[in-house]
Specification:
heterodimer; A: alpha+beta; Penicillin-binding protein 2a (Domain 2); Beta-lactamase; 2 domains; 6-stranded mixed beta sheet; 17 helices; 22 strands; B: mainly alpha; two-stranded antiparallel sheet; 14 helices
């Protein structure tokens, strides 16, 4: 009988070996796939066993903190956003349904401490074995809460955005987008958050307008056209133009902006600098026809157009600026093979299908302020480990030179003139020279405009560059509605 | 050694109160050990420590999942050890007298299996009618029935192994009647895991006794035919198989639980799928004892039946591949010792009895853990010595006692010859 018994023993052991193999399969081979599955209830909880790092702008200005909760013998850490609506779209959220947004999403690896390097992995393993809580790294942001608050307050119920940055380093001081929402209410009242409306109507509060809102830049784009005109050597600030109130393109009249009495403004014989100061469309229309769409677009690209501006927020929460076309798939970036197909006259003053984000326009102002070199924007100054050591310290960088220093100086002078005696007088600050450019873009609906103001100050020693945009402003001109916001933000950042 | 590690894990896990638990458990093990030393001095020295270790692992995990269940389980372990002592004391002279009562065991097995079907005391849990409750106690008589059946099969096959080959109805009759009765009851109760287990034990012993592969082949054929019939006839079984083959769906399917259209992983196969997630989450090293995730962020337990049928998923998550493999290795050592006893036993009854008890132990482990790991369809039976469940603990301790009795006799004979 022993032969049969030996065989039975072998069968029994094989059965148990099968179990070892199957366990190995699920725990080693298939483990990753299992963890990635949407219906994995364990992973939905596990993320909360990690004490995420804080997101803060200073020791006391904390934007994302944790609240502890004991559940089923486990200590879970849920997010708490003490600043509520302040910079909500930039900070983002991290909720129980596993959805995340903003820096909470893009910096998740750092915040959960799972950014891999050997010593980190080792520390984590030790924490785990010791039964201790895994702690993530904290983010120290470049945002200035005071100026951020002022920006959001002034935007108020209107839909719009404000971006302010250091023109030399690219450090982002303000990144405001309205309407905003309270990240604390995401997990409980998501449906309510989706229904938040601004004055513009369908105001998607979750959208970070500062980085992904695409707006017709209107006359603020004249900075780029002027940069192209001067830098390419085709024009000088004193090049003269005749302004009959319109320019003739494709045999048709392209009118200037209207006077209050609905007649087109007419300036007669003016220089390029004067055309910039008073934002005369016919002047730029003629410049555009002379230098061509290709030159303008090439310069736009030098300023960063056609590329998603670098920043620490999720890439899909940032949009590239440039010409867009509408297809069945929706709005897509359009880099025309034949630039002659683009209307150069209208492109020159920022109409046609040109769309730009507030961040991109802030970068344009910052580039002029920075002597022609495009600063690389960043919002995370420092990543700090739980033990206080620095994981990463952001070194300011740049995205290359867009224009010559002389061109930047000429543009600065023109922008200063625009604030001193042109369209942007509302941005004047006593004792400080502000360089700026207004923009009032047509939206396709009469008397409803997208209002812009981009600027930097002080003009002789630039510290801050700002871009402000307001959506769907009825009879709202950039100089009237956007410039005061830019002024207040500048003041807060220069004096605070 | 292993015991010490569990002891330490327990200590670090939950305060000083668990120390009393551990001390009490250690004392209990000592009592069992002393009883064994007194009654079966030549018995295999590995079985009891392994059984104690498995019980300790089970208790620790059950404690971790819910202290109140651990207290009840602790009581059952005490009862199990008591039964263990009684069996050793009662049968220490010669357990082989059981052979004389084989038909009694056969009928007893059927009676025990029938009990849950009786009105009043019978109880249906999770679609299977397995439970008997009397007073405040719940009991699965099938667990004892399993042992009675093994005793009967061992005794009967030992006696008839020579003549079975002649294929006379007279010899096969009682075997088939008792066997058929048992199977009928099992299908009637809807307890497929046990049906598979008993049929497997039957086949193993039949093969061991007769050495006829043909019998096994015919029996397997019958089983396949039977299984196909059951598959067609019982929706309960069809669901199990579907959940096994396709636990995840990308399209919504009909959910019988809610009557709506949902993904299968959110309905029928939820338990299986979440259990796999639990195992997968463990990875190589596990989350560590006491730090696994078994509840949602709002405090609901994710996997139902976690401390009984799915205790392996809990252990695999907290102890990881290393711990789970070590656990299975313990089972393997136990099973190998069991077959060693069977090989060294002096008489046919002892050999078959040891083989039956051991193979049953191995197959039960395979059926439940294999079900969890999607090696075969999931059926709810307990993991011997580890799962929460009194009947299972008691019957497992009887298995340990039986194997120790057999090994004691075999080893004593060897010593005597010397």
């Amino acid at each position: 009988m022993n032969r049969q018994l030996t065989r039975l023993a072998i069968v029994s052991v094989l059965l148990l070996v099968t179990l070892v193999v199957a366990t190995t399969y699920w725990q080693a081979w298939a483990s990753g796939g299992l963890q990635a599955r949407q219906d994995n209830a364990i992973q939905r909880v596990v993320q909360f066993t990690i004490q995420r790092g804080l997101i803060q702008t200073g020791p006391k200005a904390i934007f994302a903190a944790n609240k502890k909760k004991k559940v089923g013998g486990q200590t879970l850490f849920f997010r708490r956003y003490p600043q509520h609506k302040l910079a909500a779209q930039t900070i983002g959220y991290s909720t129980a349904s596993r959805s995340q947004a903003g820096l909470e999403r893009s910096m998740n690896d750092y915040l959960t401490g799972s950014n891999t390097n050997l010593s980190n992995a080792f520390k984590r393993a030790l924490d785990k074995l010791g039964g201790g809580t895994v702690k993530g790294n904290s983010l120290l942001l470049t945002l200035r809460p005071g100026a951020q608050r002022i920006a959001q307050q002034l935007l108020g119920s209107r839909c719009g955005a404000v971006v302010a940055m250091n023109p030399h380093t690219g450090a982002v001081y303000v990144m405001a987008s309205t309407p905003s929402y309270d990240p604390n209410s995401i997990s409980a009242n998501y449906a309510k958050v989706l229904k938040i409306r601004g004055d513009c109507g369908a105001g998607h509060a979750l959208l970070n307008r500062a980085t992904s809102g695409l707006y017709t830049p209107g006359s603020t784009f004249k900075i780029i056209t002027a940069a192209a005109a001067l830098d390419s050597g085709a024009f000088t600030p004193s090049s003269m133009f005749d302004d009959p109130g319109y320019c003739t393109e494709y045999g048709q009249k392209v009118s200037n902006a209207n006077n209050p009495d609905q007649s087109a403004e007419t300036y007669g014989r003016v220089s390029l600098a004067q055309g910039f100061e008073h934002s005369i469309n016919s002047v730029f229309c003629n410049v555009g026809m002379k230098i061509g769409a290709k030159t303008i677009l090439d310069y736009a690209k030098r300023f960063g157009f056609y590329k998603t501006p670098p920043l620490e927020t999720p890439a899909d929460e940032r949009a590239p600026s440039g010409l867009y076309k509408y297809t069945k798939a929706g709005r897509v970036l359009d880099d025309p093979k034949d630039p002659n197909s683009v209307d150069p006259g209208r492109l020159a003053f920022g109409q046609t299908t040109m769309l730009a984000t507030p961040l991109q326009m802030a970068m344009v102002a910052a580039t002029v302020a920075n002597g022609g070199v495009v600063p690389k924007p960043f919002v995370v100054q420092k990543i700090v480990a739980p033990d206080g050591s620095t994981v990463r310290d952001t070194k300011p960088g740049n995205l290359g030179r867009a224009i010559k220093p002389q061109t930047a100086a000429d543009l600065t002078a023109m922008m200063v003139a625009a604030v001193q005696g042109g369209t942007g007088t509302a941005a004047q600050i006593p004792g400080i020279q502000v360089a700026g450019k207004t923009g009032t873009a047509e939206t396709g609906v009469d008397h409803v405009y997208t209002a812009w103001f981009v600027c930097f100050a002080p003009a002789d020693n630039p510290q801050v560059a700002v871009a402000v945009v307001l959506e769907k402003q009825v009879n709202g001109f950039g100089g009237a509605v956007a410039a005061p916001i830019a002024k207040a933000v500048l003041q807060a950042l220069l004096h605070g | 050694m292993g015991f010490a590690s569990v002891y330490i894990a327990r200590k670090s896990e939950i305060s000083a109160a668990s120390l009393t638990y551990a001390a009490f458990f250690f004392a209990l093990y000592l009592v069992a050990h002393l009883v064994a030393r007194y009654t079966v001095p030549y018995a295999d020295p590995y079985l009891l420590p392994i059984a104690a270790l498995l019980t300790a692992i089970g208790l620790t995990e059950i404690y971790r999942l819910g202290p109140s269940d651990a207290f009840k389980q602790g009581l059952w372990v005490v009862i199990g050890v008591a039964v263990f002592a009684v069996v050793l004391l009662g049968l220490r002279r010669d357990y082989r007298l059981l052979e004389n009562y084989k038909y009694l065991f056969g009928l007893g097995a059927i009676a025990l299996l029938f009990m849950p079907l009786l009105p009043v005391i019978g109880q249906t849990v999770n679609g299977s009618r397995l439970w008997v409750h009397a007073g405040g106690l719940q009991f699965q008589p099938g667990e004892l029935g399993k042992i009675a059946l093994i005793v009967f099969l061992a005794a009967y096959l030992r006696e008839k192994r020579e003549v079975l080959a002649q294929g006379r109805l007279k010899d096969w009759g009682p075997l088939l009647v008792i066997w058929g009765g048992a199977m009928l009851v099992l299908f009637a109760t809807g307890d497929l895991g046990s049906a598979l287990l008993y049929y497997g034990i039957f086949l193993a012993l039949l093969y061991a006794a007769t050495a006829r592969v043909a019998y096994v082949a015919v029996a397997v054929g019958l089983f396949v035919a039977g299984a196909a019939a059951v598959y067609k006839g019982t929706p309960h079984v069809r669901t199990r198989v579907t959940n096994w083959l396709h636990p995840w769906t990308t399209d919504k399917v009909y959910c019988a639980l809610t009557g709506t259209q949902t993904l299968r992983q959110d309905c029928g196969s939820y338990q299986e799928v979440q259990s796999l997630y639990s195992i997968g989450h463990g990875g190589f090293a596990g989350t560590g004892l006491g730090t696994g995730t078994f509840t949602t962020s709002s405090g609901h337990q994710i996997i139902p039946e976690l401390n009984t049928d799915f205790i392996y998923s809990a252990l695999a998550q907290e102890l990881g591949l290393i711990g789970a493999a070590a656990l299975l290795l313990l089972y393997m050592v136990f099973v190998l010792r069991g077959f060693r006893i069977s090989l060294f036993a002096g008489d046919g009854f002892s050999k078959l009895l040891a083989a039956g008890l051991t193979f049953g132990f191995a197959l039960q482990t395979f059926i439940i853990v294999g079900g969890i790991l999607r090696v075969l369809p999931l059926t709810g039976i307990t993991l011997p010595l580890v799962s929460y469940g009194g009947s299972s603990i008691v019957s497992s301790f009887i298995v340990v006692a039986g194997l120790m009795l057999i090994s004691n006799r075999a080893n004593a004979e060897v010593e005597g010859v010397r």
